[in-house]
Design goal:
By secondary structure, the protein is an all-beta fold. It is built from no helices and twelve strands.
Length: about 150
């Protein structure tokens, strides 16, 4: 065992006390991630210092733009929402089905891609009609961070 209790030599613990970390992104020299269960998007630097970026009703999935605003997909409300730090809603894109994922991309990274489908519950995911779509709309700011 390594000194920090891991089985991999050199493995360091950067931050503890998370509910469930998901969807990591690298932006502005920090790791941004969803703290799933607490409905937070958090940024952490290489010293382990965390900053709460925004509370959102869902934390999976999301993407970041060049103005450090967060776009998140909102299945039950059938929309993708752009919020700034502190939670101010900047833009909402309403669609006719649940939004399951979103990302900024395209030639100039200013296209918001939305993956949506009608949602009839987990028990009907496999046998439900194939209503999934990829939708696009111009975004006010290009994507930032990776992936």
């Amino acid at each position: 065992m390594a000194p920090n209790g891991s089985s991999v030599s050199g493995l360091q613990i950067l931050r503890t006390g998370l509910a469930f970390g998901e969807s990591p992104r690298w932006h502005e020299n920090r790791l941004w991630f969803s703290n799933w269960g607490t409905q937070e998007v958090i940024a952490v630097d290489m010293d382990g210092k965390c900053e709460l970026i925004v509370h959102v009703p869902t934390t999976l999935p999301y993407c970041i733009d060049a103005e450090s605003a967060v776009w998140y997909a909102d299945v039950p409300n059938k929309r993708c929402v752009r919020v700034r730090e502190g939670g101010e809603v900047l833009q909402s894109v309403e669609v006719d089905r649940g939004c399951f994922a979103c990302m900024l991309g395209g030639r100039d990274r200013k296209t918001l891609f939305i993956l949506g489908a009608e949602w009839h519950g987990v028990d009907k995911m496999i046998d439900a009609p194939r209503t999934g779509q990829i939708l696009t709309i111009d975004a006010p700011a290009p994507g930032a961070g990776w992936p």
